[in-house]
Write a structure and sequence with these properties.
This protein is an alpha/beta fold. It has 6 helices and 10 strands; from the N terminus they run βββααβαββαβαβαββ. β4, α3 and β5 form a beta-alpha-beta unit. The mean pLDDT is 95.
Length: 216
């Protein structure tokens, strides 16, 4: 059944009910396939920040580095020496930026709560990473288009997020129980985004997507 909502990624009104649980209602876009919740169910900024402050991300944590290597390794092997990057949504313990710096690259960081210097968006980058962040975006269309505009021709935008696999799997999915998760992407959603950007899309891992920007 159609509902009176616009998709926060592609802004289509072709939106239908997708799933409902005790906590929230979920909708799906008929154009880009994004699954999302309505803005009336977003956490407040204060509540959201308190949740993020519970994250214990530490560059000295070998396990966390191993987790991030799923993004780091496929990106770093595609970079020319001395590339410049942006880690978007770096969190309270920036680590990916440290890993790239150790490999000889320079990385700016941005986080809405922990590193909110928006001047980074006035620059251009050879690569941009967004690990476990797109599912938190209230306005994914706006934010992702802004990142794409900051990427140099030939550059790479790397996204890590768990993917929607279908309604039945979604109904049992632990990922949706995190109340800071408000948008859920699938392979079809990322394929739509790649088409919009005219980008090459590489599925580098089960939860890692690389968007490669064409050279002018």
């Amino acid at each position: 059944m159609k509902v009176c909502l616009k998709c926060p990624l592609c802004h289509s009104v072709e939106v239908e009910n997708y799933h409902q649980d005790k906590q929230r209602n979920y909708y799906v876009c008929g154009i880009c396939n994004l699954v999302f919740i309505g803005p009336e169910q977003f956490l407040t900024d204060d509540a959201e920040k308190r949740e993020y402050e519970l994250h214990e991300n530490d560059p000295a944590d070998a396990g966390y580095r191993q987790f991030l290597s799923r993004v780091f390794l496929p990106v770093v092997k595609r970079l020319p020496p001395g590339s410049r990057g942006l880690d978007f949504g770096s969190g309270p313990g920036p680590t990916l930026s440290v890993m790239f710096a150790e490999a000889g690259h320079s990385v700016e960081i941005y986080d809405r709560y922990f590193a909110p210097d928006a001047s980074v968006f006035a620059e251009e980058y050879d690569f941009i990473t967004a690990t476990e962040v797109v599912e938190h975006l209230h306005f994914p269309g706006k934010e992702l288009n802004r990142l794409w505009a900051c990427l140099k021709p030939g550059g790479i935008l790397a996204i890590m997020t768990k993917l929607v696999l279908g309604r039945e799997a979604f109904s049992k999915w632990h990922y949706k129980t995190d109340l800071t998760h408000v948008g859920f992407f699938s392979k079809a959603t990322f394929a739509w985004l790649a088409g919009k950007w005219q980008a090459e899309l590489i599925f580098a891992h089960s939860d890692v997507m690389l968007f490669c920007k064409k050279n002018d």
